[in-house]
Amino acid sequence: MTATLETGTQRPAAGGTGRRGSHALRWWVLAVLGIAQLMVVLDATIVNIALPAAQADLGFGDADRQWVITGYALAFGSLLLLGGRLSDLFGRRNTFIIGLIGFAVASAVGGAATTFEMLVAARVGQGVFGALLAPAALSLLTVTFTEPGERAKAFGIFGAVAGAGGAIGLLLGGALTEWASWRWAMYVNLIFAAVALVGAVLLLAKHTTMGARPKLDWPGTVTVTAALFGIVYGFSQAETEGWTAPSTLAFLIGGAVLLAAFAWIETRVAHPLLPLRIVADRTRGGAYLTVFIMGIGMFAIFLFLTYYMQLTLQYSPIVTGVAFLPMVAGMVASSTTAPSLLLPRVGPKVVISGGFLVAAAGMLWLTRIGLDTGYVTHILPALILLGLGLGGAMSVAFQGATAGVQHEDAGVASAMVNTSQQVGGSIGTALLSTIAASAMTDYVSSHQPGPLTMAQGAIESYTTSFWWASATFVLGAIVIGVLMPNKVPAPAEGEPVLAH
């Protein structure tokens, strides 16, 4: 099967694609962007590992613990589209640097936190500046690499970083918590940010505004920010309060209504926050769906498999992190080969659908775990399959998500990737947690009370979530197979991004 090539306008990056110096500099830009992306992605799981130690140190209760996670998710998820558009309007370099500095400052405050409120405020700050940083990083990548061969390699490496960051966060969080302090799970971001900041200042061209001063769609901004806040918060409420709780229903329904209102507003304003042409394109729409579905299913890997290894198999936090490394290796291998080797030959539809099916097989393998099953026989093969499947699908989706966009829309198109992943993760958190809890309750209530029943009930909750995650990936393969055209994504338009 040969995929057709979708044509698009290409502009060379600053310095000319033919000059060896500029060619080398572009790969240094990729390194800078990868470091920043890794910092944002691993921050979710690194804090999860450190949270019990932080709770013991600061003395807050179990009911308050969720706000350390939710505070970040709410700020990050609700402000992503605004952050993406700001990078389009006021310069990706400026937004990237501000995001780096702000994220580092918020991390320093979190590491030095002496109260629960101070820690939550720092996490909210990380979310705010992460919403500036993440879209700017992907959009800078989009407009830097427009030559097809280089673009495939660059997006493969970036996709590997994005996909493997969660697992790396587990390892790094376990090591820092066990060998140093939970506070270093926050302080470590200062190292990442400092390296990326130096690279950004030296390598990226300063933004110059041409023509009229850019305008921001304030009605759309307020509406979509409130909508995303309501949706993310509603799903977090569903996890703790239940799906029928008045607060859950109010936020979910209110968020859906505001999202519909946002779509209506965007068809009528002169300078829309999210031009609907970005999501209406089938290649980009399919890419956003891919990341959304992946966000739902990946929650089961990192949460329930971590619970199983630590609570059932009695792994330490650092051993748990090491146990995830084969998945990281699989992601790196497939992310760096699928865009350059498979994508030109079979097209994005086949690569993404195939990746989902391979990941579904990995999830099915995990449904065979028990109280005393071995890592090599029951966990390792599944992690390898999950890494290979999700890495290939994610790297191709990242490339398709910004396919053919004009450079002035690259930021908001990139923000849609992060928004899709964040909303998908919120749904996965609430939905799979509810399903797992119900499975455990049903098992315990139908068996004789005792420690063995409770332990087996936990296994039942994990395997049930793995079945549902596998079904989610199969559904993703079907949806992408039906909706996504099998065309190699055209690159976005380039613009000068390298400093002279």
From TrEMBL:
Name recorded for this polypeptide: MFS transporter
A Pfam family: MFS_1
SUPFAM superfamilies: MFS general substrate transporter
Main location: membrane
Keyword Oxidoreductase carried by entry: no
Listed transmembrane segments: 27-54, 66-84, 96-116, 128-145, 152-172, 184-204, 216-235, 247-265, 286-309, 315-334, 346-367, 379-402, 423-445, 465-484
PROSITE patterns associated with the record: MFS (PS50850), SUGAR_TRANSPORT_1 (PS00216)
Span list, region Disordered: 1-20
Domain of life of the source: Bacteria
Polar residues bias (residue ranges): 1-10
UniProt keyword annotations, A-Z: Cell membrane, Membrane, Transmembrane, Transmembrane helix, Transport
